[in-house]
Specification:
Four Helix Bundle (Hemerythrin (Met), subunit A); cytokinin signaling pathway; HPT_dom_sf; 7 helices; mainly alpha; single chain; two-component regulatory system; Histidine-containing phosphotransfer protein
Length: 196
């Protein structure tokens, strides 16, 4: 496949994700600056990789909190805030496999057979952080999912949090897959030599 064909596939992927609302104008601007060498490629890759690392870390921390024998609602809310802060422009797609939700184990019970207690304030803070970091990469749907998550925080139930986190996980998976695909395709273009 030629560099021009790969470039056309990249442009098609970005256009479709923009049309879906997965990414916003900020992502388009970031990509265009990279593409036309107004900023160095390494900087854009660093921004994308940092977002992916931060978001993955936050989602892992939420999973750990939701699996604790005692659910501390305040901690969960706090982590949710961090997640929202990390991704405020939101990214994601609803078609992503719900298997991402497998990180959470709602069937976990305490020794007394009661539902575990989760620190929901910490989860909420992490979601807030994710929302903020997603804005840095133009991940629009993820940010919106983080905002929707905040509505479930008032219920203070583990089931409510799990339901609210499913779209966040889906949107993160979609954005991560898109970013990684673009990076891989850009490497293919670079390997083909001189620019089109």
């Amino acid at each position: 496949m030629s560099a021009a064909q790969i470039r056309a596939e990249i442009n098609g992927l970005i256009a479709s994700k923009f049309a879906e609302g997965t990414v916003n104008q900020y992502f388009l601007q970031l990509y265009v600056m990279w593409r036309y060498k107004k900023i160095r490629k390494g900087m854009v890759v660093e921004v994308m990789e940092r977002f992916l690392q931060d978001a993955d870390k936050i989602l892992t921390e939420i999973a750990v909190l939701l699996n604790e024998p005692q659910l501390d609602y305040d901690k969960v809310e706090g982590i949710a805030d961090q997640l929202e802060g990390c991704s405020s422009s939101s990214v994601g797609a609803k078609r992503v496999n719900l298997s991402c939700v497998e990180y959470f184990h709602p069937e976990a019970k305490t020794e007394e057979g009661n539902q575990p207690v989760v620190d929901f304030d910490k989860v909420d803070a992490l979601v807030q952080q994710l929302k903020g970091c997603s804005s840095s990469v133009g991940a629009n749907k993820l940010s919106v999912s983080c905002m929707h998550f905040r509505r479930f925080n008032h219920s203070k139930t583990k089931e409510g949090y799990l339901i609210a986190l499913a779209p966040i996980m889906n949107e993160f998976c979609d954005v991560r897959n898109m970013f990684l695909t673009i990076l891989q395709m850009e490497e293919q273009v670079d390997a083909l030599g001189p620019k089109y």
